[in-house]
Amino acid sequence: MVVFGRLADMFGRRSMYLWGLATYTGASLLLGFSPDEWYVVGLRVVQAAGGAMLLTNSAALLTDAFPRRHLGRGMGVYIASFSVAQLVGPTLGGFLTHRFGWQWVFWYNVPVGLICLAWGWVTLRRTEGSARDRGIDLPGNLLVLVSLGGLLFGLSQAGDRGWTDPVVLGGVVVFAGLVPVFVRVERRSRHPVVDVGLFADRVFGLNLLASFLSTVARMAVVLLIALFYQAVHGEDPVSAGLKVLPLSVAMMIASVCAGPLHARLDARTVGLLGNVTGTVGLVVLLSCISADVGYVPICAGMVLVGVGAGMFLPATATALLDELPAHRVGIVNAMRLMVQNAGVVVSTALALSLVTGPLPASLRPEVFAGTLSRVSPADVGHLVTGYRLTLGVLTAVSLLAVLASFGGRRKAGGEDLRSQPETLASTPG
């Protein structure tokens, strides 16, 4: 993502976005003809590259298209579209697979992609890249790939292997060891892949930290509640999935409705209110979780978490991107997405390892495989203990996100990043 964000700043976001659409659509077409699983794996990598081109440029294109006073509304609709996709995607995918075969899960993307490609070609405004700052930081890109790749792979194994497993610890050690090397390389680079000087701005750094912490605190909630209804109440995956729909619906509605708040409050204040709301939702879930809890308090907690996320995500995206000079928007948006994706991995690994900690070791593989059905009465108490511990930790992380959001508000009359000089990482030397 960081690479494509940098390339978009250099050569223009419209071109990179359309190339991403074409790559994703072409890979989807070929995936349906895959003769074996290795072709699927390889083409999914190509498809992921196309998706990275799309994601790193979507919010950046909105920043170009919307005037500053309306950017919050545009971001709200953009974030809401992800909630719609979460609601429609699994149902549509299941229907297509059952009725026509697995190939149509990929082939469905082809007509949609072609329509979007034609629409984007006609409607997207042409933007010029930064001619004065064209260059690829190969050492920096390699360090990002190795350090983040190692960290995310290690964390993705934590739920299954445990936090003390050599693979998990190795990923963390590789990341920690390469970070200072990366910072040193980027400070000396004429064309840094990440402008580390941006982190000298307290507001920017705290908002990026709040984005990470908020993602860690909220992203595992859907998984946790669905697993709760499967394991404790013995419900099938479809029924458990329906139980968590209120969170996505609340997030979708809040993303759209929070837009008008940006006209009265600055984006960072809206983000702070969203983090507070989400924290209250986690407190509700923590206080009510038990083996015999009814659905109403669980639903209320999920709705508050969804509303908080729906307010926070577009507000933070607006706050991070709105005050940037045009030639930095792509790379900063890529950094934002990279941080959020890391938060998703950490959230899932942390939640699964904590919630399964009190369970017998023989049951944990079923949790990680998603095949755990109703547990025995003797194990229900252990599972509830794990849920209380997990929700308590997520609530604490959410409180830290609130503090980061509170500290990340820019004082009235303070300089934003557009009015500040280029940082050391952006200048030769």
TrEMBL record:
Alphabetical list of SUPFAM superfamilies matching this protein: MFS general substrate transporter (SSF103473)
Compositionally biased intervals (Polar residues): 420-429
GO cellular component: plasma membrane
Keyword Transmembrane helix: yes
Pfam families hit by this protein: MFS_1 (PF07690)
Keywords assigned by UniProt, alphabetized: Membrane, Transmembrane, Transmembrane helix, Transport
Membrane-spanning parts: 16-33, 45-63, 75-98, 104-124, 136-155, 167-185, 206-232, 244-263, 270-289, 295-321, 342-363, 383-404
Protein name as catalogued: Major facilitator superfamily (MFS) profile domain-containing protein
InterPro entries according to UniProt: MFS, MFS_dom, MFS_trans_sf
PANTHER family documented for this protein: MAJOR FACILITATOR SUPERFAMILY MULTIDRUG TRANSPORTER MFSC
GO molecular function: transmembrane transporter activity
Domain of life: Bacteria
Membrane-topology descriptor: Multi-pass membrane protein
Species of the source: Planotetraspora mira
Protein's cellular compartments: Cell membrane
Annotated stretches, region: Disordered: 410-429
Location of the Major facilitator superfamily (MFS) profile domain: 1-410
